[in-house]
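Memo to structure team: turn this sequence into structure tokens by end of day. - J.P.
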Amino acid sequence: MMKQDVKIIGAYIVSTSFILGPGIILYGLIFGFSISEKTIKKQAETQESLSFDNNGIIYKLPLFDTTEFIGWKTIETVVYTNYQSDDNAQFIFYLTKPPIQLMTENPLWINRIFPFALRNKQQVTIMDDCKNFQELPEKLQTYLANTNPVNLTADYREARLIRSKTTVKNNTIKTEEYWKPNNNYQREKVIYDKYNRTFEEIKQAKKA
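Reply from structure team:
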């Protein structure tokens, strides 16, 4: 008898999980999940950020207790990428020498044991979830010569409206739109290159 009761209770728990699980997810999608102030504060504390001066870019990585300094004079190439399959746009910096790295005075124990070690890497990628990311194009134009402009708010993936037809029938307005896919969408754009190379030429040079 006890064994049968356990089976019934187990089946009840499994059934309830299948009902409540999707229900909770659906509720969250419709009304939004509640995020505590503590969680928001923690996310802000670990968010990467950028600042700028006449000498270069200060790139802070709080999660690793590290700050990287990218001198304007060390920048060889800057590429902007925004792939359709990715959630993040990014700037990729190719440098003539690795960025200067400094660790905070009181780093976490894990960062002391396993420091953020990219000291010999001459490439830095900055994602669009980094604070002050939107300021990068203007700063690059200010401190680097012959930069190409980029509009971070434009969606180059959008199709082009080629025809629109509106009809009125039985007091109902119906609009039909015909769109042409944007086949010229630029997934990669060279913002700056010291040698005025194309993206393909830069890619081949980095492979060599």
